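Render this sequence as a predicted structure.
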Amino acid sequence: MCGYEDWATNFCSRFLFLMQSILAVLLWATAVLGQVDSSVDRGDSRFMATVLARLAQRADPIANIYLNQARVEGLSSLLGQPMSAVKRLNMRLRIAQERVRAGDLRAGIEEMQSVLAAVEAGQVPATEGFVYMLHDQLAIAYLRLGEQENCLHNHTTDSCLLPIRGDGVHTLQEGSRRAIEHYTINLNKRPSDLGARWLLNLAYMTLGEYPEGVPEPWRIPPRVFDGDSGGIQRFRDVAPAAGVAAIGLAGGSAVEDFNGDGLLDIAVSSWGLRDPLRYFHNEGNGTFTEATTAAGIDGQIGGINLEQADYDNDGDVDLLVLRGAWMGEEGRMPNSLLRNNGDGTFVDVTRRTGLFSLHPTHAAAFADYDNDGWLDLFVGNESGKRPHPCQLFRNQGDGRFVDVASAVGVDHVGFVKGIAWGDIDNDGLIDLYVSQFYQENILYRNLGDTPEGWRFAAAIVAPGPNESFPTRFWGYANDGWLDLFAGGYNMNDLGDMARAYLGEEFAADHAHVYRNNGDGTFDEVTEALGSFGQVILAMGANYGDLDNDGFPDCYVGTGIPDLRSLTPNRMLRNDGGTRFLDVTTTGGFGNVQKGHGVSFADFDNDGDQDVFEVMGGAFEGDLYQNVLYENPGHGNRWLRVFPQGVQSNRGAVGGRVRVRVRRPDGSTRDIHHLIGSGGSFGANPLAPHLGLGDAVAVDFVEITWPATHQTQRWAGLKLDRAYHLREGHPSATEVILPKFHFAAGHNGH
């Protein structure tokens, strides 16, 4: 009897269905665009809004397993047809599962209970495994009900933070208590089910009855959640009071001063086909105002990831919206390039810039690969049985891009999930790293302008996990060479969530870290660095400096679409470039909801980086609030620089910063930084924030400009200041940034 389809099986069957329907899909897409072209002016925001709305309207719930409410309606319409009792029972269960995924939890639970009653009454034959699965599905439906009634509708800043305690304890307890009943039934049958054991402990936490209330054989000891202190103080989620706790699904984040007032604003996406791109303007008083309509981005729907860059070198940072990931041929959607008008408004220029195409993608990154002073764009598309080659759009410098991927040798075909640009050998030519599923990750080494033209050469120097997702170049060792991070995503056994915390061996892919040897090779150092080997199900990921010690720390958003995947997002503190300490619990970062776009940024201009994260899952009902963790401060010194390229691209993306500081004992120390937005899923501001540790003075600041590979030095800069540094200009100009305190109040009732 077949009544339960996990997300991976659905994913594969979706591709099979789509391959049988390629011709229909192509004709459908042509018809959609043809209708749009005849009625809407090409290249403007209305054109894109119309395209996206029509694509959403024509989405196929058979092919797209994430259109849960539409699947409920479609499956329900079949119940009137003649079918056997067994088939009807299975159909009812499928409808119930889709209701739960759609967020209609009580209706889904009622239907599942009815199916269970029919099985227990002997109305239809059922295996022991089928009954076990029914209890498992009821348990997670009830657990999700508890989350919906408490963490969503009665949210506090302790909600869903592992270990759950304090204000995170549920006041409405029906969901968790009923979940415990069903997990107890199953664990009495299969006490080795670590996935059920993990979720049972979480359910008891939500009732305030952990650990004592958990039966001893199934209890996960509290010590496993302690982690390390690492000198990190508790960060508090101020998103509700600040006005940025938007509720949505998986999506991207981009933090930048989009209107030039010295305050960092936030753009967030949610991947539902009709979910809007949202823009939050920083008011400078501890609150943000949603300004989506005023920004001119109404109609920009369905984005999974965001990237930002000043593509036209006008001094205003523009925004790229990526779409279609995880949907196979249903994901043949256009990305959007939104040009910043400099006043907090945007206009869609996708068509007029030559970027309009229809491919499923999650990953893209800007860099000036040919050092002409204009940012180019690599888009990593997702290929299934039908190829969707990656694209490298060369910036022509006149507002248009041309795809040169094939000509330069980077028309890669794979299921690409992350992109990173970085100069691995410090030769002044930026290289490209592609993170992907089912194949080893590829490094495309930039060979420069050869006699045959500009070329890249593929190599495998940091293969990564089997299902590699977020990635980045970063200098975790702070030695002037760029290292690599690749986050693992595969997990076939939900029990691995518990095994990772219990210190037991697990089969899931974990994050991989590679150290640059300075000779074009990398060594995997994951085990030597400690905590990375325990980080699984990486999705969103980025880096910043929590305590301003000058060593980049790492935050990883976690999860898979399965509603049962409740595993904490992980914060790892860099301890002097030699190891990473898990400060998830100490810092208050361990939200068990699914984490996506991550951005480190000093929103309140007080000299330390706060952390913003987009939360929410893939299924329509797997919603959650976005979070903003306020940095309490750790007493170290800092510097913020605003580079302005002249020969180089305006934001100096791809350039390198080196700061030499003097310490209390008279010794000196160098701190390095790669200019860019950080990781591949979540975007930091482009202007570098530099932690300086216990520095007593700044000896100098250097920037190696990306277009010329020339290094320029400024001296006489003061600690705890912000400076504008212009390429070729000998003087640094201090920038006065408006400071504020976040609004009082943490709970979101």
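Summary. Residues 236-630 form a domain with the Methylamine Dehydrogenase; Chain H fold (CATH 2.130.10.10). The longest strand covers residues 442-450.
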